[in-house]
Amino acid sequence: MGTKQGGSNIPSGFHFRNRGGIMQKNYRHARTANMRYRKWWRLLVLNEAILSFSLCSVEKTQLAFAEPPIKVRPNSAAVPNQILRTGIDLKTSTVSPNTKNLAQILQLMPVLDSIQRERAKSLSNGMYVLDGAQMTNANLTSSIINAMQAIQQASLDVDFVEAEINAESSLYGEILAAYTSERDRKAFQGNASSIATNTALWSLCEALSVTTGPHSNHALAAGISGILAGVIPSVGAAYSLLQTNLKKERSEANPNMLAKLFDYNTTPETDYPRTVWAFLNECPVGELTSRRQQLIDRWIEDRNISYFDDASSKRELDVITASVEQPHGLSIASLSVRLSMLQQLSAEILKMKRMLCELSMVVRGEKFIDCTDSQLAGKGNGSN
To answer: Confidence band (pLDDT; 50, 70, 90) for 67?
Structure first.
């Protein structure tokens, strides 16, 4: 059993030496160690907090001074301008940077370099060379044939895409014409019925009003006919306004040439040749975005294409690319957007032919291309 000493239960046989001094000293040591531990812990936590705040401040400063991303504002361009200029000048002796970029896509740089070297060698030897005629240099003849075949193949690739775009535009144009004709017919019927009803009812109203003197009971009928003369034509006019985009049917699931631009699956008829697809995914010289992305951004900004204002809207893209069926997706608005996009896509792809023309001028010796620089500023994503 323990005995109670100093207000505490102390086991029997336990004795203190200098009980008060030793216990107080041990307590002070323990308290001091605990305070030091807490102090170092607080310093460690404070140090971590300061370090985290410093890193966040540096990141925020870097973000503040970084160039803000260019955001495309939907339907902001009331009068759109041309994009993706080729920069070709037929009066200069050198090709444009974009033409040189296309030569790299077509892997024509070694061939064109060989042509220019062999032509210079032939001229230095006193041979007369013009447009591939009267040539005795076999290497030059072979290089010219190879270059012209590559240029012709690229031109046929463009024609391959254009043929499908024209076929789709013809089909969509036919459907749009039918929808527009039906809309105009119904609008005409609504306007004609409104005019006829308005004329008949107001004539009746005035006729009854004239006879209200001898026949006072005609006043009520005149008022009723006047009300109807105002309401019925208004209903007819509202019906005519509703015909603007009323014709709607389920959209088809038959991908068009816009499908691959938005990463949808394609069919063999709507796929792109390697050269054309590489050209669209390449950045024009001096720019940071590809032709494909610039084309999409232009469509978003164009106020005349109000149906398409969000490149991430799956429903809009399903209808525009004709890839996934959507209820009430096929309408005058969606068909008009398809036609506008296909026409602009065709126009940008046809610019390849302007560059191919300049490359053919290099082959004939009318222009010069610098083949020493293999890398061009602004080179883009390649063919994938």
So the answer is: very low
Phi, psi (degrees; rounded to nearest 5) at 339: -65, -45
For residue 156, give every residue at least 6 positions away whose Cβ sits within 8 Å of its Cβ, in sequence order, or none. Answer: none
Total tally of structural domains belonging to the chain: 2
**Sign of the four-CA dihedral 77, 82, 85, 90:** negative
Q: Answer for the pair 381, 281: CB distance below 8 angstroms, yes or no.
A: yes
Q: How many residues does the chain have?
A: 384
Taking a C-beta distance cutoff of 8 angstroms, is the pair 361, 367 a contact?
yes
The Cα angle at residue 119 between residues 118 and 125, in degrees rounded to 5 = 90
Whole-number Å distance between alpha carbons of 361 and 365: 6
Which residue range is the domain that position 318 belongs to? 97-178+250-363
User: Can you tell me the distance from the alpha carbon of 32 to that of 344, in angstroms, rounded to the nearest whole number?
Assistant: 81
pTM to 2 decimal places: 0.68
Say yes or no to pLDDT of 181 above 70: yes
Does 161 share its domain with 308? yes
